[in-house]
Structures are given as structure tokens and as C-alpha cells.
Design a protein that fits this description.
Elements (H helix, E strand, L loop, with lengths): L1 E2 L11 H13 L9 H21 L7 E4 L2 H12 L5 E5 L4 H14 L2 E5 L9 H7 L4 E7 L11 H10 L3 E5 L11 H4 L3 E5 L11 E5 L37 H16 L2 H20 L5 E4 L2 H5 L12 E6 L4 H12 L1 E2 L8 H7 L7 E4 L6 H16 L1
Parallel strand pairs: 1-11, 3-4, 3-5, 5-6, 6-7
Antiparallel strand pairs: 2-8, 7-8, 9-10, 10-12
Helix pairs in contact: 1-8, 2-8, 3-4, 8-9, 9-13, 11-13
Length: 389
């Protein structure tokens, strides 16, 4: 199988990640739930993962990295822990339902006022509209670092600058960016970064979390057992315990730590991002002129010089074949050529509304560190054949 669904999850993992998970399952106890060697080893392993995540994301304090099962849980933690009754929140049409649904619930249950900044014909965030929507009194701006539909990157530093000028916090969904795009909370002015481990970080599913800038007071969302302060009636407020209730996925986090190490040992985020971008560009250039194919995102803007050719983006090529439903195209690619892709709405309804693809959906092909040129060429040939009927 040629696996081009890495924006959903990276199926191919470094062998070292697999080995780390297996070793942890043989040796690891429950961190913070005892004084045995196995419990202490688990705590040290998890702290090591915190330190790696903090370094990767430019978070000034490792204890301000709190783990969660995925970025959806992390975003719920951040949004519910920072947004209160009647607050004003600005987000964008680029967002995944992991942002939209928690905000929609708060609008319904807490009277939170929501505004959504739009995008241009290339799917790029409309920064002028965002600037008009963010006003003094806005509580937070919640924005993706890269669209999971088009792969377009967002200038989160620019978003943070205009948000902070109005006194608003910035929550960034880095699900598609962490590991392949530079994320530095201190340099970019980000207050909270939410991430997942199972995509470009090449860790196991069930890993993720949020990194919180010092001075940003995220109230506890999930509450329960912590292994410390057991007689306290409320969730302990020390970091990171305030945001971590229940047993952590220590086995998975052992693998995530090694996934981050693997990236560092193979040229770092810049090298990983450049490889994914090169593979995606090869795919785009191979299909862009095929009659009947529409490619979405900022690729044409890059061709026109409106976006730098080497500007960061996720390794995604989103396309449609005229007159053919995206699910049918994806099925043909799998059944006829063994190529795994992702059709449909990608849990991003407002992005599809903006692109006019609500009915047809989009076929998303997404690359990883392990994607090869031969795999891309096979995909180009298959898509071309389908388009030509």
C-alpha cells in the first residue's frame, strides 16, 4: 500500500518509536502512583517527554506542558479553561471541528459570542477581516497553524501580534504543524499551543497535549485522580497536575519522546518540513495541468509569486476530479492502485463551505517523512488515469 493519509495519522513510524513503546509496556509502572522503581521510571520518562515537547515548541517551562490523549482533548482543555460566560472569541473558517464544536457549545451554554474570519480564493486566512473582528475586550483568538484541508499555513506570529494589541489570548491548534513547521511560543507570542503526537511527530495515537505560556491561567477542565493532594476537595492547581487528571498514557509518551528525538536526529523540523513540502509539490506539479482536476490551497498562489515557493505549509495536496465524488475517487485509488487517501469533509465544514466543496468533498493526499518520490509518481499516474476516464 502507498500511504498518503498522513494528515490523519502517520502510519509508518520509526522503528525506535515502536521499540520504545514495547519497552515501556514491559517496564513502566504508574507515574505519581507509588515509590517503586517502575513508578519512578515512568515519572522520569514522562518528564523527559515534557522537556522534549517544551524545547520543540519554544515553551519556557517544561512543567507547563500538560498531556492529553490528542489535540481535540487539549483544545477542549484550553478553550474551556480560558473562555468564560459572555466572552468574545474570534476564530476562522479554516478550523477543524476540534475547535469549532467546543466553541459552539460555549456559545450555546455560556453565551459566548463567536466571530469567524474568512479566507480568500486560495484558502488563505483573511488577515484584514481577522484584524477587524479582534477588538478590545476580545477574550481569545483560536487559530490553526495549518489547515487540515488545504495544508495552507497561517502566520501565527502576525495573529498573535494583533490579538495581543487588543488584549486577547492566542490559542493555536498545531495538529498539522508540530514537527514540520517552526513553532516557537516565545518568539511568536503564542499563549497556548495544542498538539497531537500521532501525525508529523511520528508518535503513537493517544498522545498529545498543550503547552501553556507562563502567566496564562488555564483553569482545570478534566478533574479527578492525580496521585497527589488526595485529600483536597478540588483539583490541585500546581503545574502540570492542574490539567492532568487520571493515569497518563506513559507507554505512548515514551514513544512520542523518541519520535521527537528522531526528528532532531534527522535534520530537525526544517528538514522534515522541507521533505514533506518537496513531495507535495512534486504531486501538485504532476496533476495541476491534467484536464478536469482542480487543486485547492495556496499552490497556485505560490506559482504566481504571491506566496514564497519555500514558505512552510503542510504536505497536503487537496484536489477534485470534475464530476466524480471525492469518496469514489478515493475508493478507486485504494482498490485500483493501493493508494490510501482521505475523501470527504475532513471535520472542517466551514473550510468546505468557503471552497464550495460541501457536496463533492475533497480528496486529500498527505505526505510524511517516509514518503518517497516513487510513491508520489505512482499517485500522479493513478490520478491522471482516473481523470482521463
Amino acid at each position: 500500500m502507498i500511504y498518503l493519509d498522513n494528515a490523519a495519522t502517520t502510519m509508518t513510524k520509526p522503528q525506535a518509536v515502536i521499540d520504545a513503546v514495547v519497552a515501556a509496556m514491559h517496564t513502566m509502572g504508574n507515574a505519581g502512583r507509588g515509590a517503586s522503581a517502575s513508578s519512578l521510571d515512568a515519572a522520569r520518562s514522562i518528564m523527559g517527554c515534557r522537556e522534549r515537547v517544551a524545547a520543540l515548541l519554544g515553551c519556557s517551562r517544561a512543567d507547563h506542558v500538560a498531556f492529553a490523549p490528542n489535540s481535540t482533548a487539549a483544545l477542549n482543555c484550553a478553550i474551556n479553561g480560558l473562555v468564560g460566560e459572555g466572552d468574545h472569541v474570534v476564530t476562522t473558517v479554516l478550523e477543524h471541528n476540534s475547535v469549532l464544536r467546543p466553541l459552539n457549545r460555549l456559545a450555546r451554554e455560556r453565551g459566548v459570542r463567536l466571530d469567524h474570519a474568512g479566507c480568500d480564493a486560495y484558502g488563505r486566512l483573511d488577515m484584514d477581516e481577522l484584524a477587524r473582528l479582534v477588538v478590545p475586550g476580545t477574550r481569545a483568538v483560536v487559530v490553526t497553524a495549518a489547515s487540515n484541508v488545504t495544508g495552507n499555513a497561517v502566520d501565527v506570529a502576525a495573529v498573535a501580534a494583533l490579538a495581543h494589541a487588543a488584549g486577547a489570548l492566542v490559542i493555536v491548534d498545531a495538529s498539522q504543524a508540530a514537527g514540520i513547521m517552526p513553532i516557537n511560543m516565545a518568539e511568536q507570542g503564542i499563549d497556548v499551543v495544542c498538539f497531537t503526537g500521532h501525525k508529523a511527530l511520528m508518535g503513537p495515537q493517544g498522545t498529545g497535549g498543550l503547552a501553556v505560556a507562563e502567566g496564562v491561567d488555564v483553569a482545570p477542565w478534566n478533574v479527578g485522580g492525580t496521585g497527589v493532594h488526595s485529600f483536597d476537595a478540588e483539583q490541585p492547581l500546581g503545574w502540570p497536575t492542574r490539567l492532568e487528571a487520571g493515569t497518563l498514557n506513559g507507554h505512548g509518551l515514551a514513544g512520542l519522546a523518541v519520535g521527537i528525538d528522531y526528528i532532531a536526529e534527522n535534520g530537525g523540523v526544517a528538514a522534515a518540513g522541507a521533505h514533506e513540502l518537496a513531495c507535495a509539490r512534486r504531486l501538485y506539479e504532476g496533476v495541476r495541468d491534467v484536464p478536469g482536476i482542480t487543486v485547492y490551497g495556496d499552490w497556485a498562489a505560490r506559482d504566481a509569486g504571491l506566496v514564497a515557493a519555500d514558505a512552510p505549509r503542510a504536505g497536503i495536496v487537496a484536489l477534485n476530479i470534475e464530476g466524480v465524488d471525492s469518496a469514489e475517487v478515493s475508493d478507486m485509488l485504494m482498490e485500483g492502485w493501493g493508494i490510501a487517501t482521505r475523501p470527504g469533509a475532513h471535520c472542517a465544514p466551514l473550510m468546505h463551505q468557503a471552497l464550495g466543496t460541501v457536496e463533492q468533498g475533497i480528496v486529500r493526499l498527505s505526505t510524511s517523512w517516509f514518503t518517497t518520490a516513487d510513491e508520489i509518481d505512482a499517485a500522479i499516474d493513478a490520478i491522471t488515469e482516473i481523470a482521463r476516464g
